[in-house]
Structures are given as C-alpha cells and as structure tokens.
Amino acid sequence: MKRKDLLSIYSLTPDEIRELLDRTKLLKKWLKENVSHKPLDGKTLGMIFHKPSTRTRVTFEVGMYQLGGQALFLSGAEIQLGRGETVSDTALVLSRYLNGVVMRTFKQSDLEEFAQKATIPLINGLTDISHPCQVLSDIFTLEEKFDSIKGIKVAYVGDGNNVANSWLFGALKTGINLSIATPDNYSIDPDILKKAKALEGKSEGSFKIFTDPVKAVKEADVVYTDVWTSMGKESERLEREKVFRPYQVNWDLLKHASKDVLVMHCLPAHRDEEITSEVMDSKNSVIFDQAENRLHLQKSILEALLG
Ligand code: CP
Ligand code: NVA
C-alpha cells in the first residue's frame, strides 16, 4: 500500500481495502500456526491516547510485539501535548524518534495536522467522527462469516457516531448495502452524508437512512450497534438513555431481520442498554470474533505502513 497514513476509510481505495483484508487473513493464519513473522524488527510505534481504550490499545501493542517491533504508550495527559505543546511540534519531535504513531483523540483535524507535519505514518485509533480500524476489522469478520460480502445487508441501529460514519464509507467501498437508523437529533453529520452521497454513484455499495429501527433491520443479514453515549459525550448520558431506548437491539427488534441474522457491536457494550445480554451472548452474536480480529487487521495496517 503506497500511502503514508491511515486517517479514514474515506481516503482508502477499494483495492487498498482488499489488500488489507487479504493480508489480515494470512497474518491470522500464520499466528494460529505459530509462524514467526517479524518484519518490524527494531521499529517503534508511539501510541498517543486522549481517550480510554481496551481493544485498540492492547491490539496495537500486542500486534507490534508479534511483528517484531515495540510499542510505547503515551497517555495524552502525561505528555506535553496535554499541557499545550502544539500538535505540529509534537509531530515534528516524535518523527525523530519513532517509526509510526497511532492516535486516539477528539478532533479529526488534530489528526490531519499531525499527519501533515509528521514524516512518519499516522494511524487513526478513533476520533469523534471516525473509527476506521474498527470498521475495517468488522468487514474482515463478515468476510469470515459469509461466502461473499457483496450485496449483504448490514443495519446499523443507534447513534450516528464515529462508528456509523466509518460504516458508511466501509460499506460503499466494499459492496455492502447499509441501512442506518438513528433518532432524529442523532443522525449522521450532514458533511459526512454529503461525502457519502457523492461516493454512492461510483460505488458498489449503497446506503439508506431511517429513523425507524424496525424499517432499517428488515431482512438484514447483520445488525450492528454501538454505545448510546460515546466518549466525550458523558454529560448527555441521561437524555440519551431516554431517546435511544427504542433503538435497543433485542429479540423483539431482531425478529424483523433475517432468520440467521448476525449481531455485531464494536465494544465496549453497556449490557441491557443498547443491546440485551441475551442477544450479546446468543449464537447469533459475533461480537467477540470482532474483538479478536482487531489484532489481525491492525497487524496488516502496521505492516503496510511501517514495514
Ligand atoms: N472498539 C474499540 O475501539 O474498543 P476500545 O475503546 O476498547 O479500544
Ligand atoms: N462510539 C464509541 C466507540 C468506542 C470504541 C465512542 O466513541 O466512545
């Protein structure tokens, strides 16, 4: 893959996504077979996190070790960036020590500023408007579950957040038909929607936007949800709990989907809020496969950008 950074799915070509997915399959197979593969020997990944993380943090760190490199966790609160050193200066300095950076932060524009100044690759580990590593790895999970993902129907139910935005572009670029159901005031950001509409005519995939979750999940092969209150929105929690109640993924909603529907959630889940425990722990759930695949998919990103 001939690119320096991975900041969004929007910026990836379908061929680049294909390359990552195919490589992920091989890297997963090699790990299961104990094949030693260390192309990142001697390389160091910096991991700047301004928000909490379990999966993204652990999988990038473990992924680096497995590929022969090392990872350095840099809590946003404990580096000078958190005390007002600029994003640009941080990028210039870290480029002198590291071979790549993964950043989890609030503003996508901070990520773009860092990438512009840095001479090393930058990977988006989640921003307020996108979570590309998550959705790429979810698409990989679906490739493991279906003979072909082209033309399958994925329904995303819940908040029009970072994960939903990345799903829009992920679906369009891989030939998935996506339905999104959000409450009125929590719909997809108009700028994102505009970009998605412009892309739709040139894509194999498609999308439809609803407010009614029942309409969105009708005959869906996959139903996906995420938390009602994303990181950074904690002050809205009580209001959101009321508004999102009809969007809970439970058996009542799933009876409108395909009989063998697969259920997905990026995690962390608030059990019995956005998804019932019964559904999460059912045979229809592929949620923990999704979590596992974050490791394999991110190794393919690390190899492609730092290798
Ligand atoms: N899904 C995901 O990104 O999880 P973490 O917040 O634990 O990294
Ligand atoms: N939408 C969630 C995703 C967490 C992985 C958040 O931003 O908190």
In short:
This protein is α/β, with parallel strands linked by helices. Helices cover 41% and strands 14% of the residues.
Portion of residues in beta strands equals 5-15%
Main sheet: which strands, in order across? Answer: 7-6-5-8-9
Quantity of strands, as a count: 9
Number of domains: 2
Task: State the distance separating the first and last CA atoms.
Answer: 10 Å
| Shape call | globular
Largest sheet: 5 strands, parallel
Order of helices and strands: HEHEHEHEHEHEHEHEHHEHH
Radius of gyration: 19 Å
Structural class: alpha/beta
Could you please describe the fold and organization of this structure?
Belongs to the aspartate/ornithine carbamoyltransferase superfamily. OTCase family. The protein has helices at residues 14-32, 55-66, 87-94, 108-117, 132-145, 162-174, 190-200, 213-217, 237-243, 251-254, 277-280, 287-306; strands at 44-49, 70-75, 100-104, 122-124, 153-157, 177-181, 206-210, 222-225, 262-265. It is of the alpha/beta class. The protein folds into two domains: 9-130 and 294-306, Rossmann fold, CATH 3.40.50.1370; 134-290, Rossmann fold. The protein has a five-stranded parallel β-sheet. The chain has a four-stranded parallel β-sheet with strand order 2-1-3-4, with helices on both faces. Strand 6 (177-181), helix 7 and strand 7 form a beta-alpha-beta unit. It is globular and about 55 Å long. Phosphoric acid mono(formamide)ester binds at residues 53-57, 126, 134, 266-268.
